Amino acid sequence: MAVIDINADLGEGFGIWELGDDLALLDVITSANVACGFHAGDPLIMRRVCAAAVERGVTIGAQVSYRDLAGFGRREMDVAPPELTAEILYQLAALDGIARTEGGRVAYVKPHGALYNRVGRDPVQAGAVADAVRAYDPSLPLLTLPGSAVHDVAHGLAVVAECFADRAYTPSGGLVSRREPGAVVHDEEAVVRRAVRMAVDGTVVAVNGDEVALKARSICVHGDTPGAVSLARSVRSALSAAGVVLEPFA
User: Is the entire prediction scored with pTM above 0.85?
Assistant: First the structure.
C-alpha cells in the first residue's frame, strides 16, 4: 500500500501583500513548508500559519531560502558556506521559536527556489545547508529531490525525497527550469494523473516522453499558482480514491 505526504509552500505573503490561500490549503495538505522571512513571510504571517497548522494537525516545515525578498528567492546567489549555514540557522531558529509558542515545532527543513535547485547539484552549498540543520537539530530531515546532492553530504541526517505533480521533468529526473516554457503544468486533470502515477507507480513522464523512476515519500503542490486550492483538493481526492494512505513523513 502506497503511503504519501502532500506538502505545499505557505506563508509566502509579506506585510499587506497576500499570496495564496494558506488556511484553505491547510485543510488539504499534510505538511506545510512555511516561509521564514528571507524570500517571503514575516513574523506575523509565520505565527498565523503555525497556529493554523497546529490547530489542524498539519506538520510544520521550515522553508529556508537565499536572502532574496525582492526576487522571491528565485535568484541564484553565491553565498560563502559559513554565511549560508548561519543564514539557514537564523531562519530555522526563528520559525521553530514561533511554532513552539503556538504548541508546535519545526519537524523538517526544505530549501526554497534557487537554493533548492542549487543544492540539488552543488555539494558545497548542499553541505552548508546540511551543516545548519545538523547544528540546530540533527533529528530534522531534509526534503529534496531524489537525485539531489543533499543525499551525498547529509552525513547522518535523514533525507526525504519528494516529487512535484505540477512541474515538468527532464529525462535525468530534474525539474525543468521555470525560465523554460511548459515548466509548470497547469491542466488540472494532467496534474491529478501525474500525482497518482507518482504515488502508486513511482514514475513520471519527462518532457521528451521518457518514463523516469521517482522514489518519493512526499508530493508537492504549489500554493502560489491560480486555482491552487482546487487543484490540491483534486490531488488529495484522487490519491485517496487510488488507495494511497495520506500521512506526513515527519
Answer: yes
